[in-house]
Amino acid sequence: MENGTSKFFNLKEFPHIVRALDRNLKIQDNVLNVIGNTPLVKLSKIPKEEGIQCEMYAKCEYLNPGGSVKDRIAYRMVLDAEQRGILIPGKSVIIEPTSGNTGIGLALASAVKGYRCIIVLPEKMSDEKVNTLKALGAEIIRTPTEAASDSPDSNISVAKRLSKEIPNAVLLDQYNNPCNPLAHYDGTAEEILWSLDDNVDMVVIGAGTCGTVSGIGHKIKERCPKCVVVGVDPHGSILAEPEELNKSDVQMYEVEGIGYDFLPRSLDRKVIDKWVKTEDGTSLQMARRLIKEEGLLCGGSSGAVMWAAVQVAKNLKAGQKCVVLLPDNIRNYMTKFISDQWMETRNFKPYPTNDKLWWWNKVIAENEDLIQATASVSQNSSISEAIAALRESKAPVVNIVDDKGSLIGIFTADNARRRLANLAGSVVEDLEKFTVKKIYQIDVSNDSTLAAVSRMLDITPYVVVVKTDASSNIQKPIGVITSDDLLTYITNKSNQLNGN
Ligand SMILES: Cc1ncc(COP(=O)(O)O)c(C=O)c1O
């Protein structure tokens, strides 16, 4: 019987679109074989909107199986250490300090090859990276973001210490391992040159360990000497040259994976012709544009690299070719710059307007009754004192202040419990280790609105309210606002407005 279904599936009769199949790649032994050979994709909308004359191409490193360019060096370091008998399957333990992506690459190789893998990474790095690492079976150790690289608390120092303590531990050490630049010299650079028939005028590359930019730079200088190699380094880091470029007040930046406070051995400044310094707002806005306008599901450092490329590619002419390397993918940042609220609360995006809500644009005053009073303890207090203050005040946070009463962080039961659960050994009586320093806060001296509070409450359980003293510039804590406080305030005021 001729019915709708059989007609629908008369597939032979449709016009067909069959792409050329790569006959050499029928079956892969394992996923590690798929690392590299990433596509080079022409950019269209952004170059046009930015008035760029040259052709721009994105090297889509975020399409590697672990989600980043670092899969290449992780696999290369493992293969090299195996060949030299340093890594022994079933026996060795891989341990590495990383900003996450090298860790994911190593955890991927460890999962396939059967190594125990321990990754030491700063707290700044996203939970998405941590969860990916855990899913791959890696063990995670977090270290304070603010710890300088040479301090005993940094991820590099902790990994070095553990590699001496744990039997059969092997630290592959991406900062000092020639396989890092070599993976790009042999792999990434060859691919770029092959795709463009050895004719490229500029490559723009983010700098972390600098293995990518140094490895690609070396090969490019040999095969295409006219090409300008551009390194991208965030303000707050010291990798760029000349040194004056690195002068900055920036203490912490949000973009992950690029920038350091020391010069890694895997950096060769000789092969980098020009450096561009970047900042968070424009980098992350550009990453959102790469996703929205070009369909490239990349991460934050890709935005930094693209922003830098737009500045330098303005000097190139029609017909010249500029390659922009996109290091990692959107998955790492789903709760960070991909979240509108996250962007808004850092002033990287305006708060949405909403004319229908009477309270949306209301400016919060210092004495507003929606602000819950909070207690404060000195930074020299003990954990027990902070817990006692928390219980007594009944507010969800206790302020931690310095000698001048300036807010330096908060203490919360949730965070303290999480830290305790992750601590190996006995309870530490050091309040510093339990202080939350990254706080969602509003300043009543800045005409902050309820819109800001409401958007923040989408991504945090409490908004800390502060006031900046105009003469001393000291930020003093005033209280806290929770969803409960905001709801009660809105309903009470709405009832009053309606005459109930
Ligand atoms: C997201 C991201 N971008 C850029 C880089 C920089 O790469 P490289 O370490 O080769 O300089 C890294 C390195 O970890 C990274 O994770």
TrEMBL record:
Gene3D superfamilies: 3.40.50.1100, CBS-domain. Belongs to the cysteine synthase/cystathionine beta-synthase family. The keyword Isomerase does not apply. Pfam families: CBS (PF00571), PALP (PF00291). Residues 370-431 form the CBS domain. Its EC number is 4.2.1.22. It comes from the Eukaryota. It is an enzyme of class 4 (lyase). This is Cystathionine beta-synthase. SUPFAM superfamilies: CBS-domain pair (SSF54631), Tryptophan synthase beta subunit-like PLP-dependent enzymes (SSF53686). Keywords: Amino-acid biosynthesis, CBS domain, Cysteine biosynthesis, Lyase, Pyridoxal phosphate. It catalyses: L-homocysteine + L-serine = L,L-cystathionine + H2O. It comes from Vanessa tameamea. Pathway: Amino-acid biosynthesis; L-cysteine biosynthesis; L-cysteine from L-homocysteine and L-serine: step 1/2. Hydro-lyase catalyzing the first step of the transsulfuration pathway, where the hydroxyl group of L-serine is displaced by L-homocysteine in a beta-replacement reaction to form L-cystathionine, the precursor of L-cysteine. This catabolic route allows the elimination of L-methionine and the toxic metabolite L-homocysteine. Also involved in the production of hydrogen sulfide, a gasotransmitter with signaling and cytoprotective effects on neurons. PANTHER family: CYSTATHIONINE BETA-SYNTHASE. The gene is LOC113399315. Its cofactor is pyridoxal 5'-phosphate.
